[in-house]
User: What shape does this take?
Amino acid sequence: MVNGLKVITLFLFIFYSLASAQEMPPSLIINSNPPGAQTRLEGPLDMSGITPTSFIQTISGKYDIKISKPGYESYNSSLVLEPGVTSTVSVNLKEKTRYKAALRSIFFPGWGQFYSEEKGKGFLFLALTASAGIAVWAADKEFRYREDLYNEMAYRYNQAGTIAERLEIYPELQSKRKKAYDAETVRLGTIYAVAGFWGLNVIDALFFFPDRRADQPVDGVSIMPNENFDGAKVVLSYSF
Assistant: This one.
């Protein structure tokens, strides 16, 4: 009998708490244009939701806010919530475009792909261009070494006092000239490789820009206490 009363009391307490929560005015209302954006707040409580959304719990303090939606640029800001005051955040998200992606890729390989949420391709173009850049450095170093050897031999050839001395030096001079020429050809090839990868990176960002505006995250709201939060540990989940 006692256990039965405890169960009934607990049930009534939970029911009353939920009913009271529904009657409370929201502490924070978040809207976005377009709607359906993922919202993330970090502060005394870590909270997330899908716009349009409102948090009816009494929350206060400073929060960092991030609102993101596939195909749109993320919104990042901070806000201070006061107890008993309803705060409203309304954001117009800017659409990502292929031209913005291409412009980023012009300045830095892979940046446009990261911007368009294609991290795999971004890392690929960054790695290819960086590898080609290292190859340019190595090829240039080799060319300068071969060029110095050729110039030294050319100096010896020009300083030779007799035709016999020149005839003796000439085969080695030709060999070093060829090696210097080959080294220069390799260097030019690596420079073309850098230009090619960089150009492909821009072309990919411009002509193969993905349209992610139709992608939707999973609906729902969650509130979890931050590990540094000293208050009561409340967990709330609400789907709509």
